[in-house]
Amino acid sequence: MKNVTDSFVSLGHWPSAGSFGFNTDILATNPINLSVVIGVLIFFGKGVLSDLLDNRKQRILNTIRNSEELRGGAVEQLEKARARLRKVEMEADQFRVNGYSEIERQKWDLSNSTSQTLEQLENGKNKTIQFEQQRAINQVRQRVFQQALQGALGTLNSCLNNELHLRTISANIGMLGAMKEITD
């Protein structure tokens, strides 16, 4: 194995004129090797690279087209959602306004009906009080009249005798006769 290694090492020292061998000068061989490799790659790999790039381009264009379609659908859905939101907000505002006005109307109606009911109750109470007062006054008058009558009858019965009774009747007849003469 040492002989094979030695032969490769010794090849590097051979002069390059007219013979085939390895050129170990990196600066001289690198651009030539690279240009050969690139030329072969371009010649043979041009179709493969072109196909790969075309496929990649088509995938990118399809992705862009799909994205544009999805974006258009999303924009359309967004506009529909915004329109529905505006409609719902308007309906909510309308319900809110109607609700507030309905609440105010019901509050006003309740206040009016309550004040009317209170007024009717007050009037009923006042009528009941007046009725009870009148009834009490009438009862007191009846009792006072009955007591005064009983007292007068008692006084008359105890004080009147026949003679006094006849004199009172004569005086009353005389007064009635005088009144008759005045009116004639």
UniProtKB/TrEMBL annotation:
Any GO MF annotation of the entry: proton-transporting ATP synthase activity, rotational mechanism
Any one GO cellular component localisation term in the record: chloroplast thylakoid membrane
Keyword Transmembrane helix: yes
Keyword field contains Acyltransferase: no
Membrane topology category: Single-pass membrane protein
Keywords: ATP synthesis, CF(0), Chloroplast, Coiled coil, Hydrogen ion transport, Ion transport, Membrane, Plastid, Thylakoid, Transmembrane, Transmembrane helix, Transport
Coiled coil: 71-98
Record-annotated membrane-spanning stretches: 32-49
Superkingdom: Eukaryota
Annotated localization: Membrane; Plastid, Chloroplast thylakoid membrane
Family matches, as Pfam families: ATP-synt_B (PF00430)
Summary of the function given for this chain in its UniProt record: Component of the F(0) channel, it forms part of the peripheral stalk, linking F(1) to F(0). F(1)F(0) ATP synthase produces ATP from ADP in the presence of a proton or sodium gradient. F-type ATPases consist of two structural domains, F(1) containing the extramembraneous catalytic core and F(0) containing the membrane proton channel, linked together by a central stalk and a peripheral stalk. During catalysis, ATP synthesis in the catalytic domain of F(1) is coupled via a rotary mechanism of the central stalk subunits to proton translocation.
Complex formation: F-type ATPases have 2 components, F(1) - the catalytic core - and F(0) - the membrane proton channel. F(1) has five subunits: alpha(3), beta(3), gamma(1), delta(1), epsilon(1). F(0) has four main subunits: a(1), b(1), b'(1) and c(10-14). The alpha and beta chains form an alternating ring which encloses part of the gamma chain. F(1) is attached to F(0) by a central stalk formed by the gamma and epsilon chains, while a peripheral stalk is formed by the delta, b and b' chains.
PANTHER family: ATP SYNTHASE SUBUNIT B, CHLOROPLASTIC (PTHR34264)
Additional observations: In plastids the F-type ATPase is also known as CF(1)CF(0).
Family as reported in the entry's similarity comment: Belongs to the ATPase B chain family.
Name of protein: ATP synthase subunit b, chloroplastic
